[in-house]
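Residues determine shape. Take a concrete instance:
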Amino acid sequence: MIDEFLAGDLGAVEKAVRAAVAEEVIPRFRQLAAHEIVEKQGPHDLVTTADRLAEEHLTDALTKLLPGSVVVGEEAVHADPAVLTALGGDAPVWIVDPVDGTRQFVHGDPGFSTLVTLAHREELLASWTYAPVLDLMAIARRGGGALLNGEPIHSGSPQPGSALHVAISHFDFTTDAEKRALSGLRAPGAEVRPCGSAGLEYLNVARGLLDATAFTWENAWDHAAGLLLVDEAGGAHSTIEGKPFRISGGNALPFTAARDEAAVRHILGLLADAG
């Protein structure tokens, strides 16, 4: 079933993503009322009506496209953490972040996206990264490369001998221990800045505009789409232990995604120095 679906035209998935965003997200961009914004675990962890309704829309649409599939969405997991167990199950899984970069969305910043990934038995198979205000649609298919607005993209390699430009977990979202774990990147050989929305940072790596990311959290909906996108654009990723990222969790953190294997090794070396 899953092989037949992947072998077909996946354009219906792109249409479903665009439709959900057009109906539930864009009408609320810069139009949110105060009651439509809720703090989950603190002032930097926000959810809006757009997040909830877009996830519901996508859950309905995607499971209809692939009967027997299930959805692991950010808001569904927040309501019931047991939903996460589907990542390790036998059913095909749609991993959904309805609004990646909710803080940006709330503040009227166009740097947000909707992330959808299709996985099966923890293998990432296809992903969609859609930034509607920026008019960017990036699609990756396992073994099929990466496209941005229909054109192939390639991560390339960083300039030899230059410091790597790295987006790291935002200071507002990191503990003191996580800041220490990333401190090795504040050394010659790297120039760091806090990340924006994870999905768009991965896209920046995939298109060669950013050398690497280094993150200290492992929510599947934040990372699945981007990791496949980077890999299919020619990049690479690894946890601090030198292992591939597992979408079901339990990863050694931090982990990095970068434009090529050499950049990954360099980042891991700097992170190891912090340990």
Observations:
- The chain has nine helices and 14 strands.
- The first strand starts at residue 37 and ends at 42.
